[in-house]
Amino acid sequence: MKKQICLGVESTAHTFGIGIVDSQCNVLANEKDSFTTESGGLIPRELAEHHSRVGVEIISRAIEKAGVSWKEVDCIAFSQGPGIGPALSVGAVAARMLSLEHNKPLIGVNHCVAHIEIGKKKCGCKNPLILYVSGGNSQVIGYESGRYRVYGETLDIGVGNLLDSFGREIGLGFPAGPNMDEMYFLGKNYIELPYSVKGMDLNFSGLLTAAKMKIGKADEKDLVYSLMHTAFAMVVEVTERALAHTGKNELLLTGGVAASKALQKMCSEMCKERGVNLNVCPRELAVDNGCMVGWLGLLMYNSGVTTPIEKSLTNQRFRTDQQEVTWL
Ligand code: ATP
Ligand code: FE2
């Protein structure tokens, strides 16, 4: 079979990324620029401005790094959702433009499923249970008859958002997750905080409010440790139950928060007890990136799926289980 190449555009939230991958999922280029702030959070309009400003430069850098000509690119994929409206639109416009300018088929992909497929490919797992934890999303997912099913998820904010919002209150910039992950291991005392698992679903906003109210009244490192320990214990509880229900014997950890050493440690203890094989998606492909979009784009393209321009509108609420799985 002829080697194919797909260029993927990612812009669901704070990252504008362009990835170029081939049919073996070799990463030819993975260029990105992420919006950060010293204080404050993500403002949708500012994200769109950021992505518009860096977009053209990132595209040319990716093409140059990959050493490919536009002629060699077979298709253009983009994250159609879920995400933050103004941010999504910039990526969609860029992808449509590239598709029209270079006369390449366009493929709109589900961002969450893109996280899953690149993780599976890079970790070499076949049919894992997936724990997908990022700023905007927190879901426990598994493949079953034609769709990726969501067994459990957050009912309010993503676990990364929980960390970033708390971090902002104690003066860490955005994103706060990486700094807090180091602080976690310096905490010594566990402070009681609300633990909220409802069936297979999770709530983090009560935990966030309670932790914020303890700022200044408890040691900061203890508070960070306790917040993260509580949130991750909730996530691990639901994951373990989903493993038990589905009988799956591999777990795939992905999304930006998968980089957390604290979460990895807690997952690894649970997996060891259950005899489950733990896989962690490599960091550069677990955070938002264009390669995952390009890889899912190629899988879909080869299963006969393309997205006509008139159907390429973005969908802020594109759910994981709305993506028809045509490639498995
Ligand atoms: P999505 O659109 O999938 O919700 P996102 O925009 O949140 O993704 P990601 O790059 O997947 O983007 O994840 C970013 C999140 O990961 C941030 O909330 C950040 O604080 C968190 N994060 C990154 N590294 C770590 C770490 N080492 N420990 C804990 N959290 C981390
Ligand atoms: Fe993401």
The low-pLDDT segments are none
| Proportion of helical residues | 40-55%
Radius of gyration: 20 Å
Q: How can the largest sheet be summarized?
A: 5 strands, mixed
The H-and-E topology, N to C, reads as: EEEHEHEHEEEHHEEHHEHEHH
From the spread of the alpha carbons, the general shape counts as globular
The assigned structural class equals alpha/beta
How many helices? The count is: 10
Strand content: 15-25%
Q: Ends: how far apart?
A: 18 Å
| Ligand list | adenosine-5'-triphosphate, fe (ii) ion
Q: Tally of extended strands?
A: 12
User: Which whole number gives the mean pLDDT?
Assistant: 97
**Order of strands across the main sheet:** 3-2-1-4-5
What's the structural blueprint in terms of helices and strands?
Layout (H helix, E strand, L loop, with lengths): L4 E6 L4 E8 L4 E8 L9 H23 L8 E7 L3 H18 L3 E5 H13 L5 E5 L4 E7 L2 E7 L5 H11 L7 H8 L12 E2 L2 E2 L2 H9 L6 H27 L3 E5 L6 H14 L2 E4 L2 H4 L3 H13 L26
Parallel strand pairs: 1-4, 4-5, 6-11, 11-12
Antiparallel strand pairs: 1-2, 2-3, 6-7, 7-8, 9-10
This protein binds adenosine-5'-triphosphate and fe (ii) ion (FE2).
Fe (ii) ion binds next to helix 3.
